[in-house]
TrEMBL record:
The keyword Transmembrane does not apply. InterPro entries: Gfo/Idh/MocA-like_OxRdtase_N, Gfo/Idh/MocA_oxidrdct_glycsds, GFO_IDH_MocA-like_dom, NAD(P)-bd_dom_sf. One of its GO terms (molecular function) is nucleotide binding. Residues 231-338 form the GFO/IDH/MocA-like oxidoreductase domain. Keywords: Oxidoreductase. This is Gfo/Idh/MocA family oxidoreductase. It comes from Mucilaginibacter terrigena. Residues 49-168 form the Gfo/Idh/MocA-like oxidoreductase N-terminal domain. Coiled coil: none annotated. It comes from the Bacteria.
Length: 464
């Protein structure tokens, strides 16, 4: 890394960023190089972290792959309730991999340092609690809970056991989100007042109609264990098992799956502890395949004024049959600009707009309705009171930021988690942060199904 580049990174401040038409990826590349050098440092046998993944579905395999990008991490065990996924885990990670359909066998093993929990949502909290009590570090997929009532207990268990616990919302580790947070705190968009955040999808797979294996039957699935903690038991249903996100009994709908990502990013950038009121509406508009959660949902979430931020409101939306196609965005709107974070947060653009000092006259104004003499008198007086510079609207170039090509925030999220396991340093997304994002998201479900406004105490993390 050159001395000039080090100096640039050191001195890369608000004044530079706010006058740059395009930041592109220079600073991001620099930061990415630092991460790579950190990860490539020699790992001694004492630094090795032996992990197990519980739940080998889409996120289970993706999380495992991301974890294994961190030097010194070794996968020793995997758990799933479908035999086919365990067979594939051996195909992918080696025939010596220990596999089981009972997660408790993994928690009893003394040679496992950390577990990734990527099960259906209804098992996140209980397995995390059991794992921490067994002395395991925990990486829990979001949302960390299935019900709001589970959050405080999970937080308390982490405090009591002092085990490393991190929630899997990778935006919190994204270099683009960290730069967006820096820009926000610098005042680049003025005083925040509203945020618009959404996920749009237009595909069967995007709407969770995942492919079901031909041997996905009751002989190859531990159906009893899958629904063991459900109050209502159902006969085996392959859709419920392989497409569990579509059912309240096992998943948390679009709110728990996607709103929680949006809220995690919003809380990270603004430093917020959470909203004070939540209201949502929704419909099952298109994917009427037996699911009991909406495929279109909108929520209005109000954040009151705190020492961290002024009052602002957030509109959240997920649309699984959007003619716009697949598109994700978070627009943070302030009094002097808007920050548009697209996609999964790998880039953002800031457009700044400031009102002229003068209040304006003419145009869409009542001025033209007055007599000619009155219009002239008013214009003469206006031009005497305000100079041309005061009357002109300030002009700004857009500010663009992009992470390096191929950058993956999930890899960084796991690198941060493993560093905490090795060193004991605080995680980037602890149980309190995770719960403060998950609870308002799940409150959107409560608001929708109960048709009521939800009041939330963000400081004490409870419904009021």
């Amino acid at each position: 890394m050159s001395t000039d580049r080090r100096k640039f990174l050191k001195h890369l401040g608000t004044s530079v960023l706010l006058t740059s038409a395009s930041l592109t990826s220079l600073a991001a590349k620099e930061e990415n190089e630092v991460r790579i050098l950190r990860d490539e440092k020699r790992v001694t046998p004492n630094d090795k972290i032996r992990i197990a993944t519980i739940g080998m579905g889409i996120m289970g395999f993706n999380d495992t792959n991301a974890a294994l990008t961190v030097p010194g991490v070794e996968l020793v065990a995997a758990c799933d309730l479908y035999k086919g996924r365990l067979l594939h885990a051996k195909e992918k990670y080696g025939s010596s991999l220990f596999t089981t359909m009972d997660h408790r066998e993994i928690l009893e093993r003394k040679d496992i340092d950390a577990v990734i929990i990527a099960t259906s949502d209804n098992w996140h909290s209980q397995i995390a609690i059991d794992a921490m009590r067994k002395g395991k570090a925990v990486y829990s997929e979001k949302p960390m809970i299935h019900k709001i009532s589970q959050g405080l207990e999970e937080i308390q268990v982490q405090k009591d056991t002092k085990m490393v616990f991190q929630v899997g919302s990778q935006r919190v580790s994204s270099i683009a989100y960290r730069k967006a947070k820096e820009m926000y705190e610098s005042g680049a968009i003025g005083k925040i007042n509203s945020i618009e955040a959404s996920f749009n999808r237009q595909s069967a797979l995007g709407a969770w109609q995942y492919t079901i294996p031909g041997d996905g039957n009751v002989q190859n699935v531990d159906w009893a264990r899958f629904q063991a903690n459900s109050s209502v038991k159902h006969d085996f249903d392959k859709n419920r098992f392989f497409r569990w996100r579509n059912y309240r009994e096992y998943g948390t709908g679009v709110a728990g799956d996607l709103f929680v990502h949006l809220l995690s990013g919003i809380h990270f950038i603004t430093g917020s502890k959470g909203p004070e009121s939540i209201y949502s509406i929704g419909d099952l508009a298109y994917w009427k395949d037996g699911r009991n959660v909406p495929d279109v949902m909108s929520a209005v979430v109000r954040y009151g004024e705190t020492k961290e931020h002024p009052a602002f409101q957030v509109t959240l939306r997920v649309n699984f049959i959007s003619g716009e196609g697949d598109k994700t965005t978070t627009k943070i709107v302030g009094s002097e600009g808007v920050m548009d974070i697209g996609g999964e947060g790998e880039a953002f653009t800031i457009h700044q707009n400031k009102m002229p000092e003068a209040p304006g006259i003419g145009g869409w104004d009542s001025l033209f309705t007055y007599t000619e003499s009155e219009q002239k008198a008013l214009m003469d007086d206006y031009n005497k009171r305000w100079t041309k510079a005061q009357q002109d609207t300030p002009q700004f170039q857009a500010i663009n930021y992009r992470a390096p090509e191929g950058y993956n925030a999930s890899n960084d999220h796991f690198a941060n988690f493993m560093e905490s396991v090795r060193t004991g340093k605080p995680v980037v997304e602890d149980a309190v942060f995770g719960f403060r994002a998950a609870a308002p998201a799940l409150a959107c479900n409560d608001s929708y199904f109960e048709n009521r406004l939800i009041h939330w105490d963000a400081e004490n993390m409870k419904i009021v």
